[in-house]
C-alpha cells in the first residue's frame, strides 16, 4: 500500500528560557515578517530579539520555562495518526525552532513515503505564516532531494469540521453565562500590520469568513459579537480593532465577555498568557462582569476528522473563498502553476 507523510507546519516556540533569544531572532530574520533587504533584516532581527528578550522570557517563565506549542502539536499529531491509520505517518516541522524543517525532512526521507501532504496549522492563510512555512518546506525539500508528489492544504477557514469544532466549544462555554442578552462573544485573532493586508494578504478576509460561518452555524440571537485582533508589536499600524480596546469598551458597558481564539488551533503563549492572564486582568480592571474564553480546537474529534478528510482528498484546491481582489491566495497560485 502507498505510504503518505503528513506534515504539520507551525511557528514553533522556545523549549527553554535560553532558547528565547535565538527563537526571536529566527522569527524576525524571516523576510515574510521583516520585509527589508537582508543586511537590514539581520541587524533589526538581532536588535528586536535583544529588546524583547526580557519580556518574552517572563512570558515563557510564566508558562513553565518554555513554550507548550510543540507538546500540544505532538498530541494533535498522535490523534491524527491514530485516526488516519497504518499507511500514514504524521510529522511536525516548526518554522523558527526545533524540530526545524530540515530536521523533519531527514525523518521523512527515512520513512520513504510515496507522497506528502503539507498541513499548516494556520486555518486562515497569510503570507506571514502559511506562505512562509510552505516556502521553507518546498525549498528545503528540493535541496535535500525529497522530490515526491506533494499536496498542500493551503487554508481551511470555513471547513465544516473546523467550524463545527469551534461552534461546539463555543456553545458549551455559553452555558456558563446566566444572561446571554448581556453577553458579548469576542472573536480574537492574531493581528497583522495593515499594509500587509492592503498588499493583498487574504488573512483578514478569511478570519471574517470563519466568524460568520460560526455565527451562522450556532444561529445565535441573544448575544452580540465582534472581531478583534491581538498580539500587536512594533510601531506600524495594525488591523483592528485591538482586542484590548474591545475589552475596555465592553467593560464600560458592563458586559460579560466570552472570548473565542478564532485563529489558533492549540494552546500556546497567545492563549495561555496573553488571553488567560493579561486580557483577563484587563477585563477585571475595566468593569467586565464575567470573562471566559473557549478552548482551542486541539484534538476535538470534528477538527481531527476534518484533517483526515483533507488527507484523503486528491485535489485540495476545489473552491476559491477569497475575493478576486485578494492577490496572494495560495489556491490561485496553485491553479496558475497547474494551467
TrEMBL record:
Pfam families registered for this protein in UniProt: Ferrochelatase (PF00762)
Record GO cellular component, one term: cytoplasm
Top-tier EC class: lyase
Q: State the function annotated in the UniProt record.
A: Catalyzes the ferrous insertion into protoporphyrin IX.
Name the residues that bind Fe(2+): 190, 270
GO MF term set: ferrochelatase activity; metal ion binding
Keyword Iron included in the entry's annotation = yes
A GO BP term here is: heme biosynthetic process
Q: What is this protein called?
A: Ferrochelatase
Q: Which reaction does it catalyse?
A: heme b + 2 H(+) = protoporphyrin IX + Fe(2+); Fe-coproporphyrin III + 2 H(+) = coproporphyrin III + Fe(2+)
* Compartments in which it is found: Cytoplasm
Protein family: Belongs to the ferrochelatase family.
Per UniProt, the keywords (alphabetical) are: Cytoplasm, Heme biosynthesis, Iron, Lyase, Metal-binding, Porphyrin biosynthesis
Pathway in which this enzyme or protein is active = Porphyrin-containing compound metabolism; protoheme biosynthesis; protoheme from protoporphyrin-IX: step 1/1
The enzyme's E.C. designation: 4.98.1.1
Q: Which domain of life is it from?
A: Bacteria
Q: Does the keyword Signal apply?
A: no
